[in-house]
Amino acid sequence: xxDDKLDLKRAYAxxxxxxxxxxxxxxxxxxxxSFAARMDYLAPQVVADVFAERATGANGPVLDVGAGxxxxxxxxxxxxxxxxxxxxxxxxxLAVAMGKGCYRQVISxxxxxxxxxxxxxxxxxxxxxxxxxxxxxxDALDELLRVARPGAQIVLGVNSEAFTEYGFDRKFDQLAPxxxxxxxxxxxxxxxxGLAERKSDVALVVVFRKA
Length: 211
Hints:
Layout: H1 4-12, H2 17-27, H3 31-37, H4 43-54, E1 62-65, H5 71-77, E2 84-88, H6 91-98, E3 105-108, E4 122-131, H7 140-147, E5 148-159, H8 160-165, H9 168-175, E6 179-188, E7 202-210
Parallel strand pairs: 1-2, 1-4, 2-3, 4-5
Antiparallel strand pairs: 5-7, 6-7
């Protein structure tokens, strides 16, 4: 796949987990170059920077949700000595991620289903590019909170349009008693080297700790 516009259009048109499996199976080998580099995709570094700034001390391993080809894991590796597990629905994307040497392990799983992970297994949760058009909705937040231990630092990038359209705003309101230090930061999704029509795209970086 070489056309960034078509690839992004196909990604935003995802409706089912199987759509995700098929898209990212086809895209895995070229994703970093044909999309992330050519679009000047800032989100992975942005969420990693926020996580590193807010996380204090070692509180166990970090779960990278929707890890894809490992862009967030690679960004975290440049910011500290984190133990990171990558979780994604695409085995092909995870194979690329594991090859970068920044993950303790990778886990193939569907975030729309219950995860086969223990309660409180992680001291941190991070995500970029997963909570967006056609991908994973707000109901997955329940599972992320389940696998996070009390006090876990959580930093999630959420597409600004999907935030209200998909009900993330209402879900976070419902979860408020279980969250500490809740913040929403606005950050650019793409940089100056990307496509002109995407430069105004904004990601909401949602930051909190599990109560």
